[in-house]
Amino acid sequence: MFAIVQGISLAGLLAAASLLPARQFDTGISPLIFAILLGLVLGNAWPRLAQGERQPGLEFCKKRLLRLGVAFYGIHISLQQIAEVGTGALLVDAVMLLSTLGLAYWLGRRWLGLDAPTSLLVGAGSAICGAAAILATEPVVRARPQQTAVAVGTVVLFGTLAMFLYPLIYPWLGLSPRAMGIYTGATVHEVAQVVAAGSAMGDDVAQTAVITKLTRVMMLAPVLLVLGSWLGRKSGTRAVRAPLPWFAFGFIAVVLFNSLVSLPPLWRDLVVQLDTWALTMAMAALGLGTQLGGLRAVGWKPLALAATLFLHLAIGGLIVTHMATSWL
Questions:
Q1: What ranges make up the beta strands (E) of the chain?
Q2: How many angstroms separate the CA atoms of 18 and 123, rounded?
Q3: Can you tell me the mean pLDDT for 263-288?
Q4: Number of C-beta neighbours around residue 315 at 10 A
């Protein structure tokens, strides 16, 4: 029991150190990203931090605490918000999510020779909601920590690039504030990156962008369920059972609860804060247990895959947004 507490305490300390700069400075970078980077630095400088007596607690954070955090992430979304942005945003979200995830698997496996977990993790991070989607997908595809860390790294790079690029190109895209919000929310990786990019383009863009992004996040649960079932059938043997992502059901339940029950603001803020802590601690634990030697062995291919998906989101998303907003 004491060993578990040691590991959890270490992850909590790193989470606190990651949440502070994310809140003090308006960087647009999620505290989850700060946490994994801090964990990587410390875990590689002092490998013993993630070993011995602390390991059980860190494993608890990477698995149990992570899944609990993903389930309660639904507190950010309500069915009323989804209805507010209309069918156009829903259509763009669905098209870009499915096409990005499909392209990631096909390109990663067939043309780049990547393993299935890495391809799907990079695809999930690009298609749905960045680091949170990668963490949620990890147990479904049975990825190793190094594969997860590589995928998170691609989200940091290309999500940050999109966050700065979109406000610069906005005047030349010929999109209304509502359409630009839909485009931003449906194609930028992280929720925090969407908030930062949207805010730089005005309140009208930001509001639509955030709701569109959260609608995209809502699609995480059905994607995990379908992905787990597909991987189970693809294995071709009854001995391998598709893992049941109970946290996906929990995510849906929290969204429904948030849609039907109006929590007092103080309670809702408390749930949001606790959920952010849980996910940030999970990322810190992941970083501590990831050795950069293993990441270097992966090579340039995940980066090439993520770059291709970024171009697909930016260019394909623009075309789909123009079509959807002009038709609907």
A1: none
A2: 25
A3: 89
A4: 11
